[in-house]
Design goal:
Length: 102
């Protein structure tokens, strides 16, 4: 279950993904499989080859891509989420939801 984002933020993420750009969207998240995690960052791109290449740069496996027809994306949680957002200069997305050291 996702929550904590504005409709406009979701629309902008979808627009960027559809345009073939690497797009980031962080939000609160609750999943019984990962009770210690409370955020997820979706990193999407319509161009799946571009998304795979981006993922490899960060040690992500192509098989981890959520193969959504319109919005293929990686779901980043835990240390992957924080480390990648820092590396991409997007840590402010995560800081909205929890205390993160720079």
């Amino acid at each position: 279950m996702a929550f904590g984002i504005k409709r406009d933020e979701l629309k902008q993420w979808k627009k960027e993904v559809e345009a073939g750009n690497i797009a980031f969207l962080t939000h609160y998240w609750a999943d019984d499989r990962f009770p210690q995690m409370n955020t997820v960052t979706k990193v999407g791109c319509r161009d799946v080859d571009k998304l795979k290449q981006w993922g490899r740069k960060h040690g992500l496996k192509p098989k981890w891509i959520h193969e959504d027809e319109k919005y293929p994306h990686f779901d980043l949680i835990g240390s992957f989420e924080e480390d990648i957002l820092k590396a991409e200069g997007k840590i402010d997305q995560l800081k909205r939801f929890k205390s993160v050291e720079r």
